[in-house]
Amino acid sequence: MKRVDDFRLKLAGRELVPIMIGGMGVDISTAELALEAARLGGIGHISDAMVPDVSDRRFDTSFVKDKTRFYKHNIDNSDKSIIKFDLGVLAEATRRHVAATMQAKRGNGLIFVNCMEKLTMNAPRETLQVRMGSALDAGIDGITLSAGLHLGSFGLIADHPRFRDAQLGIIVSSVRALQLFLRKNARLDRLPDYVVVEGPLAGGHLGFGMDWAEHDLATIVTEILQYLRAERLDIPLIAAGGIFTGGDACRFLELGAAGVQVATRFTVTRECGLPEDVKQEYFRASEDDIEVNTISPTGYPMRMLKSTPAIGSGIRPNCEAYGYLLDGAGSCAYITAYNRELALHPDARTLSVRDKTCLCTHMRNFNCWTCGHMTYRLKDTSRLGADGRYALLSAEHVFRDYQFSTGSQIALPDTEAADSLAG
Fold first, then answer.
1. What is the pLDDT of residues 350-386, one digit of tens each?
2. Cα–Cα distance between 114 and 97 in angstroms, integer?
3. Is the pLDDT score of 421 beyond 90?
């Protein structure tokens, strides 16, 4: 029976362990998690979601405080159109985070940054260009384009000196999405170096409608592989979404995928940026505790725990501090929903907004518990302690389990290791 370690992902002139850890924001896929993936010979992601706030936490900068102070006169104003990000600050925060990560890198693996198109920030084109360009400036190995079709994203960095040097990839959920991307970028004579095919069981935002359950990853992977072969396009395909064991991964590698992207099992590692109490919520979750809803202001369905504090929260829009999802006109679906409830209940002490959530604030505070469909199986990967808490795992333990396990086997930490990890 084959193991993941029997395969290699050929990328950037290297032969890598074909395991990529997905980019979970905000700082859930931490630098520490990405560094472990690279040290072990695979690929790790950091996320550039809310990177000024990440910089403030990691490097004691004051970007969010300064922005809030600058726009404090607008806090009670329902019109957020004047709120913009200082592009110089955005560039500095991105370079600082990426450079520090790359300087600490060891091993033969790679570190990519996950870059969401839906972080429109009231200047979609300008902010996206700065985020990508600054990551390239700081030496990132590659950029994975996510949360959108990114039809114009390559063009924004086509003049960058590293445009043809860095690894550039795109996440898609259908052959049509990939075809659109390739057609729109044909004039640049620059193919993506890899394509991540994300299925309906993935965590967070989904590239499907609420009919997601009618789709399956194996079918989509097969369709895209057939298309790539028919067009004679040598683009490595990375399968993602619901790949919980090494055996799951091998099935896609044998199908023709060059690698797999995994994330759910790394949410309960020590290196993951989630607070430990939230990790315990993930461990305890049952399948019935997981839902796909439409509360994200991005317009994409999103998978999360039903108990997530973001659901139904009616906090005041905090765009002066954050404002990452403001569209090009300074609007956001949550602002619209919040203002509607405020008009209906002007004297209420607290509001409840059920149809949308303030994703920026809740993600920043780790109160939006997005998750993969297989989260309910996490309890089977650890040991329950006498204190009622599950032992956290190391990223190396999970990575090695994917790499060397066979079939549906999952390597539990031994009792002594579990005791130390629990501490």
1. 999 999 999 999 999 999 999 999 999 999 999 999 9
2. 13
3. no
- Hey, what are 292's tokens? 């796909």
Q: Please determine, for residue 237, whether its predicted confidence score (pLDDT) is greater than 80.
A: yes
Place of tokens 């709120």: 83
Looking at residue 142, the DSSP 8-state letter turns out to be E
Whole-angstrom distance, CA of residue 17 vs CA of residue 32: 18
> What are the DSSP calls for 62-126, one per residue?
-HHHHHHHHTGGGTT-S--TT----HHHHHHHHHHHHHHHHHT--SS-EEEEEEETT--TT-HHH
pLDDT range class, residue 419, cuts 50, 70, 90: low
For residue range 107-116, what is the model confidence (pLDDT) as tens digits? Answer: 999 999 999 9
Q: What are φ and ψ of residue 296, in 5° steps?
A: -70, 130
Task: Give the domain extent around 144.
Answer: 4-75+87-274+383-422
**Residue 9 falls inside a structural domain:** yes
Is 329 a member of any domain?
A: no
Question: Does residue 224 lie in a domain region?
Answer: yes
Q: Compute the chain's Rg from CA coordinates.
A: 21
What is the rounded distance in angstroms from the CA atom of residue 352 to the CA atom of residue 310? 10
Helix (H), strand (E) counts: the chain? 14, 15
Say whether pLDDT at 415 is over 80.
no
Residue 143 in tokens: 């950029």
Distance CA 296, CA 375 (A): 20
Using DSSP, state whether 396 is helix, strand or coil: helix
| Residue given tokens 């370690």 in the structure block | 5
Specify whether the CB–CB gap between 45 and 114 falls below 8 A.
yes
> Tens digits of per-residue pLDDT, 161-211?
999 999 999 999 999 999 999 999 999 999 999 999 999 999 999 999 999
pTM: 0.95
Neighbour count for residue 269 (Cβ, 10 Å): 23
Quote the tokens at residue 352.
């409840």
Domain tally, the chain: 1
CATH of the domain at 34: 3.20.20.70
